[in-house]
Amino acid sequence: MGSGHRLGRRFGWLWGAYGTSALGTWLAFGAFPLIAIQVLHAGPAEVAALSSVGAAVGAAVAVPLGPWVEFRRKRPVLIAMDLVRFAALLTIPAAYALGALTFLQLLLVSVVVAAADITFRAASGAYLKTLLPAEDLLVANARFESTTWTTTIIGPPLGGAAIGLLGPVATVVADAVSYLLSALGIRATGGQEPPPERRKTAPERQEAAPERRETAPERRETAPERQEAAPERRETARLRADDMLDGWRYILADAALRPLFFNTALFNALVMAAQPLMAVLMLGRLGFEPWQYGLAFAAPSIGGLLGSRLARPLVTRYGQHHVLVVVGTLRALWSVGLAFTGPGTWGLLLVMGVELGLIFCCGVFNPVYATYRLERTPTDRVTRTLSAWAVTTKASTALLTAVWGVLGGLLGPRTAIGLAGVLLLATPLLLPRHDHPPQREPEPARSHT
């Protein structure tokens, strides 16, 4: 999957950790709904809640974690989030073995995993920016993207076979172990991570003491300092609460990131909202077999692998912004074709063709946009910005999935799928039309101690 461009041993360990956890995720793809249906005999409403409510609550839980992580070293956070997911997922096979598994536990685990996943992704972007020079970020993101699509091709068939032989709980164990291996891989990256930026309020507090010393007798200096301690703690707490919104403020203030933010959130939400309805249409009314449904969405993932390998050559030839706009427009044209899916071989080929075109465009677009976003975000704001981005994407996807479930019941799945496709045609209007120069902000205060 590499392009011959060496990024060093530390990136190699990070890449390997990413690939391991991605494979585990795709091995366990669909395991939670299967466990809910087969083991807990859950109904459609409970299965829908597991997918949407778990993601939405997990996104809400992740909101304060972004600013908390911003001022901490990122590698320990990455390891901690992997271990949290490992421990949370292991509770499921443990409870299953004891005959104590409940739907509430599945829901709580999905919340914990969703929150840890958002935090991990935000911290990993900041860590990557400190690990590699700016000119290597596109290469790195393209390799992550190619790994994503490779594991998408390999994981679901292997996971399906494992579920058939051992049951869905076995793939949850595999997913949990993949996070443990990922934590070990990230730990093996080693090296010295740059210290995180300190809060801007620190210099203000350092200046306050000399002012007090000038006006108070020498022997009474400590009393005012003790009196000021409580207000300082309150100020820090207030600023930390304020930091929760800082990622969104930065995105909305940037002329290029703002439209891209709305574009990606709406695009991802509309694409994902139609997926459950495609399952209803293909497996129900059109009579496709489960293996045919899986093939229709797994085989086209080869397009993502090809697209990710073309991202860097296309940017080199045509420029980053041009590729972002053109490919971002092309990826919106495909999904409307899913509304015309029919029975039999031709219907299956239509779905595979639409998904191939869509995934190929996403394979090119995703690493380019991820690099563009990192380049425009100051290092001391990356975690908060990426966290805000991921929270919005997760929450909007959960909301539109629920809305499209209602629309599918009212209008029928085919009509609702077509409506999502038509709305996707408008998403290119939200792409940044001009390549605005990044905002220049004053350098944050650094500690010399």
Low-pLDDT windows of residues: 201-239, 441-449
CA(first)-CA(last) distance: 43 Å
Q: How many E strands?
A: 0
Biggest sheet statistics: none
Instruction: Give the helix proportion (percent range).
Output: over 70%
Rg (CA only): 24 Å
SS field, number of helical segments:
18
Order of helices and strands: HHHHHHHHHHHHHHHHHH
Average predicted local confidence, pLDDT: 81
Percent of sequence in beta strands: under 5%
Shape: globular
Structural class: mainly alpha
Structure summary:
With 449 residues, the chain is mainly alpha-helical. It has helices spanning 9-27, 31-38, 44-62, 65-70, 74-97, 103-131, 137-166, 168-187, 201-215, 222-243, 246-253, 257-285, 290-298, 302-318, 320-330, 344-376, 382-411, 413-424.
Walk me through the structure.
This protein is an all-alpha fold and 449 residues long. Helix content is 76%, strand content 0%. It has helices at 9-27, 31-38, 44-62, 65-70, 74-97, 103-131, 137-166, 168-187, 201-215, 222-243, 246-253, 257-285, 290-298, 302-318, 320-330, 344-376, 382-411, 413-424. Helix 2 crosses helix 3 and helix 2 (31-38) packs antiparallel against helix 8. The longest helix has 33 residues, at 344-376. The relative contact order is 0.15.
What would the keywords be for this entry?
globular, 0% strand, mainly alpha, 449 residues, disordered C terminus
Task: Summarize the topology.
Blueprint: H1 9-27, H2 31-38, H3 44-62, H4 65-70, H5 74-97, H6 103-131, H7 137-166, H8 168-187, H9 201-215, H10 222-243, H11 246-253, H12 257-285, H13 290-298, H14 302-318, H15 320-330, H16 344-376, H17 382-411, H18 413-424
Helix pairs in contact: 1-7, 1-8, 2-3, 2-8, 3-6, 3-17, 5-6, 5-8, 6-17, 7-8, 7-14, 7-16, 9-10, 11-17, 12-17, 12-18, 13-16, 14-15, 14-16, 15-16, 17-18
